[in-house]
Write a structure and sequence with these properties.
4 strands, 3 helices, two-stranded antiparallel sheet, alpha+beta
Amino acid sequence: MSNANYNDSKMGERWPLIADTIYVFDKEYCDYNWWWSIHQKQAYFVTRLKNNATIIMERADTVIDEVILEDGTFKFKNKQPCGGKKNLYILKPSVT
């Protein structure tokens, strides 16, 4: 969809967000505030977290089957995880 030197998360921001849709993307589409905008449109997403993501696991179900190795609920630990960029999941905790 883009050149190799184009930031993947910026490409994701071009996608139309439709309620009740599930978006599936890899960890290179890591932008917590974009994820927040998906949530605000009442859509869903499935992705892998980067190894250095600072999270606190609230509930974890491991080894669901051969395809899904882990599923769980977590919250973010840092209010400003990326060089001072504010994480809207922490700043706007109310879920609609």
